Amino acid sequence: MYYIGIDIGSASTCIALLNEQRELIKHRYLILKGASEENRHLLQEGLKEILPKDSIYKIAVSASGSEMLKLPSINEISALAAGAQYVAPSANSVMEIGGGSSKYVVDLQKEHIQFALNDNCSAGTGTFFAAQMQRLGLPLEKYSEMVAKAKSIPNIAGRCSVFAKTDIIHSQQAGVKIEDILQVWT
Questions:
Q1: Per residue in 35-64, pLDDT tens?
Q2: How far is CA 183 from the centre of its chain?
Q3: In the predicted model, what is the mean pLDDT of residues 134-138?
Q4: What is the pTM of this model?
Q5: Domain boundaries, given as residue ranges, for the chain
Q6: DSSP letters along the chain, please?
């Protein structure tokens, strides 16, 4: 028996295949924006590539595009909490920055978890973050390495992407180091 987890977000999709011991065997990351028929076809092709033939599966789908597959879905917060507890059993909190929203879940060790969601403005989303990294001329893969060098955190607006971008530009003009600017997102 295999377990398949599919996270269909607003900007990308991740497919994970686990064995009976729930160990990750394969995964596939697809850039699929929106729930178009073309993206549905690409997702189905991605599934065909990753799935062993003639096997029994248990499938779980989460996130904003889950209706694309017409399968029952799992609430995003519940999926995030369960995934965090599986990967890091002693963790008390987890944060996910998606293409269209950010989620912060706390009290993972308690019966009733608490969570906060930012889906009102793009300033707290992965799409905005990726756009700013690109504007700064930096690959996303360099983020962690650069933040490790940060010495201070400049004041950058967090509720509005227009204000945040303006603050980032002003910080750059004032000579604030890029790694310090990036520290804002940790």
A1: 677 777 888 888 888 887 777 778 888 877
A2: 18
A3: 89
A4: 0.69
A5: 2-74, 78-119, 123-185
A6: -EEEEEEE-SS-EEEEEE-TT--EEEEEEE---S--HHHHHHHHHHHHHHSPTT--EEEEEESTTGGGGTS-EE-HHHHHHHHHHHH-TT--EEEEE-SS-EEEEE-TTSSS-EEEEE-S-GGGSHHHHHHHHHHTT--GGGHHHHHTT--------SS-HHHHHHHHHHHHHTT--HHHHHGGG-
Is-contact 97 124, C-beta < 8 A?
yes
> Domain 2-74's class?
alpha beta
Q: What is the third-level CATH fold of 123-185?
A: Nucleotidyltransferase; domain 5 (3.30.420)
Asked whether the predicted pLDDT for residue 72 surpasses 90, the reply is no
